[in-house]
Amino acid sequence: MIMTNKHFPRLSAPLLSSAISKMRFASPLAFSFSSLVLFLASVLPVAVPQLSFYDPARVTQISWRPRIFLYKGFLSDEECDHIIKLARKKIARSMVADNESGNSIKSKVRTSSGMFLQKHQDEVITRIERRIATWTFLPEENAESIQVLRYQDGEKYEPHYDYFQDVKNQVRGGHRYATVLMYLSDVERGGETVFPNAEGASSQHKDETWSECARNGLAVKPHKGDAVLFFSLHINGTTDPASLHGSCPVIEGEKWSAPKWIHVRSFDDPQEPSSSWGCSDASEHCPLWAAAGECEKNPLYMIGNSDAPGNCRKSCMVCDI
Fold first, then answer.
1. Residue among 231, 226, 173 at smallest CA distance from 198
2. What is the DSSP string of 116-159?
3. Which residues of 260-279 are buried (b: 16+ CB within 10 A; e: fewer)?
4. 101-115, 216-230, 250-264, 265-279: lowest mean pLDDT where?
């Protein structure tokens, strides 16, 4: 069932937007709070300043597992063209993170070209970054810089996860919690974003305009200005296998897109691992969470590992890893 919000009253929430933009995730419960706020935002229109304008009437939720939202017209044509202009002369062959070492390597699974913009590179980019924070209710400091990707004839990105398989990339900001994927151009054919493991894929109607690749799961066509928001983690902070996704090969035309990855913790100001964390709790609620079974359900947050210590090692009685 696709939900819209055309019949709901408008609310003014500039203070809420300001508070959320400064929010840090301090516990597993913060994921649940963020999810609840996002759901409310998807059905209750919010009036915000033009700088970060967000119109929930354009948002639909297209999947619960994983949680996927489609925002029609998230970017203007001028904003799309501006991003492409900034990136066109600087793009290079895209890389992937090696699952074991975490190092960036070239791979046949990803054949696009890309580059990263700088945060707040100019007024346009700043406006877009703030709009993303307003839509997602996730702090700007938890996000990476916007990446710009170009897919030409036959180029693709095979199904993959945005959360990390290695330890190295989790040290800075933790897992990627959410992804905002912005489409900067129309594509004549192909180039869809496909979610092979998403629930409800079989009920999605697809006519002859969809590629064969897109028929292998729940899919979204790239339309200039649209954006997709999806979550790679469950609301309790554990990884969601249903978030597997890929970019189908471009059959006709050229595809430009811009992903924005948002982490569990601050990406701009990451906390360095400390030996003093070894057998202590970072929250007074740790004993309650441990008693509720969170050590087993959410080990990454509660226990962590040798490179990224967890927040409740004492209550989980795991002091040496």
1. 231
2. EPPTT-SHHHHHHHHHHHHHHT--GGGBPPPEEEEE-BT--EEE
3. bbbbbbbbeeeeeeeeebee
4. 265-279
